[in-house]
Amino acid sequence: MHRDRFYTLIASCPDRVGIVARVSGFISGYKGWILETSLHAQPPDEGDATGHYFMRIEVRADSLPFMLSELRERFRPIAEEFGMEWKITDSAVKKRVVILVSKQEHCLYDLLARWQSKELDIEIPCVISNHDTFRGFVEWHGIPFHHVAIDSGDKTATYARIRHIFEEADGDTMVLARYMQVLPAELCAAYPGRIINIHHSFLPSFVGARPYHQAWAKGVKLIGATCHYVTAELDQGPIIEQDVIRIDHTDTVADMVRYGKDIEKTVLARGLRYHLEDRVLTCGNKTIVFR
Amino acid sequence: MHRDRFYTLIASCPDRVGIVARVSGFISGYKGWILETSLHAQPPDEGDATGHYFMRIEVRADSLPFMLSELRERFRPIAEEFGMEWKITDSAVKKRVVILVSKQEHCLYDLLARWQSKELDIEIPCVISNHDTFRGFVEWHGIPFHHVAIDSGDKTATYARIRHIFEEADGDTMVLARYMQVLPAELCAAYPGRIINIHHSFLPSFVGARPYHQAWAKGVKLIGATCHYVTAELDQGPIIEQDVIRIDHTDTVADMVRYGKDIEKTVLARGLRYHLEDRVLTCGNKTIVFR
Amino acid sequence: MHRDRFYTLIASCPDRVGIVARVSGFISGYKGWILETSLHAQPPDEGDATGHYFMRIEVRADSLPFMLSELRERFRPIAEEFGMEWKITDSAVKKRVVILVSKQEHCLYDLLARWQSKELDIEIPCVISNHDTFRGFVEWHGIPFHHVAIDSGDKTATYARIRHIFEEADGDTMVLARYMQVLPAELCAAYPGRIINIHHSFLPSFVGARPYHQAWAKGVKLIGATCHYVTAELDQGPIIEQDVIRIDHTDTVADMVRYGKDIEKTVLARGLRYHLEDRVLTCGNKTIVFR
Amino acid sequence: MHRDRFYTLIASCPDRVGIVARVSGFISGYKGWILETSLHAQPPDEGDATGHYFMRIEVRADSLPFMLSELRERFRPIAEEFGMEWKITDSAVKKRVVILVSKQEHCLYDLLARWQSKELDIEIPCVISNHDTFRGFVEWHGIPFHHVAIDSGDKTATYARIRHIFEEADGDTMVLARYMQVLPAELCAAYPGRIINIHHSFLPSFVGARPYHQAWAKGVKLIGATCHYVTAELDQGPIIEQDVIRIDHTDTVADMVRYGKDIEKTVLARGLRYHLEDRVLTCGNKTIVFR
What we know:
Four copies of one chain form a homotetramer. The longest helix of chain A has 24 residues, at 253-276. Chain A folds into two domains: 6-90, ACT domain (Alpha-Beta Plaits, 2-Layer Sandwich); 97-289, Formyl transferase, N-terminal domain (Rossmann fold). Chain A has a seven-stranded mixed β-sheet with strand order 7-6-5-8-9-10-11, sandwiched between helices. In chain A, strands 2-3-1-4 form a four-stranded antiparallel β-sheet, covered by helices on one side. In chain A, strands 12-13 form a two-stranded antiparallel ribbon. Helix content of chain A is 32%, strand content 26%. In chain A, helix 3 runs parallel beside helix 8 (253-276). Chain A is of the alpha/beta class.
């Protein structure tokens, strides 16, 4: 967590000799001051003969002799040389996060508390819900609220409207803060790595509906929550963060729901922060999280 | 967590043969339906030659052939026979919790979210603060807000006013939700076992001010929070609940503060719930928590 | 953990008014000194119209005016009245635990360390293995070692031999301390609630072979272990204890195996202790653990 | 955890532009294949005006065109240019770890299990103890055992003998595996950053003797253990690793001791592994642990 403006470079490419030297040499050649460097070499395996390299570097903006656009231009040849997927973001540009909720309050209150105190230093252009429950609470915070009811017959119009609102809001990230609805495959495909869900189980256990009932029936001794990117396959997207809490035989499903809420909101907030700080890189269906 | 109305008996007394038999015999003699029973025998030690017995029993209200007042009357002789400290509470009577805050939002948002969803099924007659920061937020929830500024010269009037507000509100419990002020000894003494604080360290480490700075300087690998009853001695009252979270060398004090907030609000909410459900009995400066 | 000899009564029965009163009245009628009482009412649900009651009571042996056999005789009518499944055990009679291992050392070393220091106050009449690897180590501790090789063609003789050794050893409990073999259904059925396994995943995730490889492929952020009773259905028996440890993207399968070993041995030791102290009661495919 | 031979460079120096570029450029200039890179910039604070930089880099030995001695020679000018404290170690050279124990078995069994399975790929030239308890166990493993009794009058000779044994054994690291004795200041000073202790509390809570008794008296809800470097000031050296476990009011001091043992051995093993893999750098009285 830094106070000064900085640029964040994240990149991945096939592994080979000299990647770090080339990138860090580029930065130091302009006297760029590196605040944080995270590097990871994924060794070769069956599906990846060369192995893969992942990096995230924060550079103080005022240490470089040019602006962000020029930084990008000058870095481009290096990226092409190594076959990188890459981007450079600017800490001064706040991410725009659209929150989707249903009727459960805990993640929404939690995210707005973090936003209000600037712990999460983001814009929330709007909140979308299939119920009108939290309109007053959201609007009191000065945030627009959209009630998009779900037509159980044809959901096409519903999700077209949500997509339209997200586009109008110029959203970077969509957060399903216990939205309790399954997004259609087209919507998932439209925003890969940009829709984040919190699932109320320790995945891959208890996929789908009513995971606390499933956990109770199975008699597990810990319950958990999973923050993951949304893909077309339900509850199967890349996992960003997980945690668990201990329960015992005295806990009913209602108790589990209550304990679970504390894990859900914490895991969602941690995962979202990693994502917003560009700390999450995907590698197939897995994530590299440069905590 | 039960839906039906129930009475909760909590009691402690010197240990001897026959306590459980006598109390459970009393209840079953009236066909009372026991929902939950927790018992604990504290063995004799240096300061307690006989050992002590602690119990908590929930009985369904509609299973008994009389009202609460008569239950208390009929139980009194048993309590006297065994030398019990005891009380019987009624799940239909909501506890009245007065919250004191300063300028940090996380515990306040968290408690109001739990109250709003009835996860915490309590009355919040008012919120008191030494700053006006959260007036709008609290009042939007329909809860009166009292700004009681602190006169750094003479705090007597300040705390007299707080005590007056608490009394007028008919408060059962006072919660210091990161209030950041040291209560005077008289106030602590006036409400033993009724004032709950959340301290932002894993006590007994890092008593007093700026515990995260202390933790950073010491280089600990986990940080924590402690929910405890307030006594005249700073941060020394009986501990109700604690938890920790892992940190590492990359975390600054600001990061610790951020991680700590998640632990603080969770630990406070758990400790407060145990207290409100009459699950906490004290034994000297320690607690029995019948989770 | 008590020093004095005590009897442990565990019992379960359909729930109704007066169970605790009757049982505790019985004990106090003979001036029995209760050291520890644990009670649990499982509410009615779809499969159990009345609900079920579970209890575990420790009574100091020297506080009763008769021997164990007479205690059992005198308690029998109460058990019959309430339709109890029950037993009474004697802390002075050490449980006899037969350990089965393969080629992994961690659970075996761990159990023998606990046995050697009397932390686990048990008899280990023998260790059985499908490899000869640990013969020297086990025999050095003065414990007989049986190498029972597995004939990949017909395993009937193998398991008949194991069963014979267990019977000859007068074993109470069989512990699969990373035995890595699937027991035949007949053997499981012969000792219900008496065979304990440690599975190297957080069940129900990653049933079967190579769970760390499964966990790696899935990209989970925590890995775990599960101690459970063995039933005919692989990795599906009642769960006694579980725990997890955090991993991240830098951890290879080999790292997971290494971290996992620490969780496995700890979870196995905790679950085994609960079992040996008669703290585990089963309720369908779930457990009540009176920790 | 890598199979192939590699060299590990660890270094720290005042922070400035170009450190990573220079070092990684040096390695890639010889086509060195980097397996793992960890970097950390400690920002300036009151006691350190420039900030400090820490690094750890693993390079595959067979990717470099020269031997270790030449690698060191060629790297030396860079180290001098940046004012580095540095060293380069070779994964093919096993560290020599001397273990000191008293009468508790858990850490000793645990370390020997890890050594026996090569999870800890080290040499154990000998075990030293102030009691003869574990002679047979240690010698059975083929490891020399030295009983060095402690003369309660004058301990000078005792520690001179221990130091002599350590020197004769050509020890790299001394591990106090619940040795239960306070080392004299001279011995601590002789091996800075080379003596590792496991303390049975979550430091800085409960320094000194009988920490579980202290924890019981205080009524904490979690107990812990701390692995740290030994310095002349008791239990105050740089912390390498810590962990905790939950307890409750039913746990006696004896129960805490038992739970604590599981935390102690795990925390010691983790901390020792970090140390042996050259993942621990010190920064004043704190550690950077490149996990």
